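The pair is quoted verbatim below.
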Amino acid sequence: MVRLATVRTTFHARVIAARLGAEGIVTDLRGNVDGIYPMGDVHIFVSEEDLPEAQELLLADEVESAFDEDDADGDGGTPRELWVFLVAVIVVAAVLFARSI
């Protein structure tokens, strides 16, 4: 077995192991996998003959996720158009309130 990657959390390691397992690649997780404290690095190992395919799968997933993030709002927050609309509504409400006084 050779080390494929090292990640910070057990959850991330298990996600990678599940992704590789879906493609028929057997993984071995080492490090702080089932400790009582969920901290510390987790190392993901695969067999030497599966290493190139596993690296390719992880790279492809990383590239795809980069494009998914770009399809979102850009900053991951509220779209600019919504903010403009909310400001316009507040301004109209303030003008109507000021006229009623």
